[in-house]
Amino acid sequence: MKNRTLRGSKTTRLQALTYDQTATAMPVRLIAALFSLLVALTIMFIWFSPAHAAEVRASKMSVSVKPEYDDPRVLVINQADLEASVQLPVDVTFNIPKGADIGMACEVDLNGGHACKPFKIVDKGDYQSLTVNVAKEHKVFLEYYYDAFPAGTPQRSFDFIFRPGFPVKSLSMEVQQPLRSSGFALTPVLPRTYTSEGFSYRAQDYTNVSAGKPLSLKVSYSKTDNKPSVKPKPKSPDDAPAADVQSGGKSKLVLLVVLSVLGIIALLFGGYMIFRSRPVASDAGGRVAPNQVAGPGGAKKLKTGRGDVKFCASCGAKLLREDRFCSQCGDRQT
Known about the structure:
Helix content is 23%, strand content 35%. By secondary structure, it is α+β, with helices and mostly antiparallel strands.
């Protein structure tokens, strides 16, 4: 009988130990499951968000380069017609020279009205990218100025590199010759020439232009004065570009990260609180151990009523009054 009692007590303790290990592992498994679910939901949200619902593509685009037009710097105007299949709103990215001064970044409606949009600029090393969120119109307009050559030198020369930020089915590039200039030359040569409003242009059309594949031009000419071709027009408040949201975008990103971390902590803590309580240990037959009852939340609680407790004369273990054998050492109790 003593041996059977000992084996029974060992079995009960082994079951309790096994359960303790299982119960301890449950929060870890829960945390891993919740984290995996959160990662999957985040990926799905990013992938299926409107900005990623369709690839940004343009059916046609024009790039106009105008050295010293209404400013001693080089003016560049980009205008793109997004394909009708592009779902709005969508982020449209233009690659521009470093240090460019943004004049306008707008959506263009059917009547030619320009609605300036916030934009963000990211440094890409040799150049920078400008991203604007297009919400309503499929026509996008970007205008910027940049310093391409040293001021005050009669011989002007600079390299213009166009880096498409998205695929373009039909691209037209033109370079305007400044007034009062001579020896105007492009390398490579743009074959098409025409005049408009007193200016001479060199142009070329391209088809199926891939994103990120640069088109390079070397522009050179001589000019003895530093005056632009035309007088700059007075700027109205409506012509002011939308504020660069580069820093604001970073603040929003930080806020999003903080909120995401807090959300993960809340999910993990809530899951832990749900599964932290453990049921009462039972014997091999599924019965609750005789000296244990379920307390609040399933916690184990020893009966401590007056007269219910005694101690083993051999090892001193606490027992219930009706226990005939010690659950620790197996000795018969009297």
